[in-house]
Design goal:
Layout (H helix, E strand, L loop, with lengths): L1 H26 L9 H28 L3 H38 L1
Length: 106
């Protein structure tokens, strides 16, 4: 049972990492010397996917134990937060892609 409780904490941590990695990429001053920016972007998208998977596993756990009250209480907020996580992650990584493409063209 403790394992399933940790899924929420893991989801938060992976979500934070999904946003942190592109911010680190954008904060690097000399973008022409940063050759690993694509690795950071892939890791960011992967962290976002892991975060969303953890939420799916937790929802599945609530269904298996038939905790309908918890499931109905959390379904809408989890869906909304998942959408925000995905949208911000994609926006940050697309911004990173645009910035690094412009720097590599110069």
């Amino acid at each position: 049972m403790l394992w399933y409780t940790l899924l929420n904490l893991g989801s938060l941590l992976f979500g934070f990492v999904a946003w942190l990695l592109p911010v680190i990429n954008l904060a690097i001053v000399d973008k022409t010397k940063n050759k690993n920016w694509i690795v950071f972007s892939i890791a960011s998208v992967s962290a976002c996917a892991a975060s969303l998977c953890m939420q799916l596993f937790y929802s599945n756990y609530l269904v298996r134990i038939k905790d309908w009250a918890a499931l109905t209480d959390t379904a809408n907020p989890v869906a909304y937060v998942s959408l925000v996580l995905f949208a911000v992650t994609v926006t940050l990584n697309v911004t990173t892609l645009v910035v690094y493409r412009k720097k590599s063209e110069k």
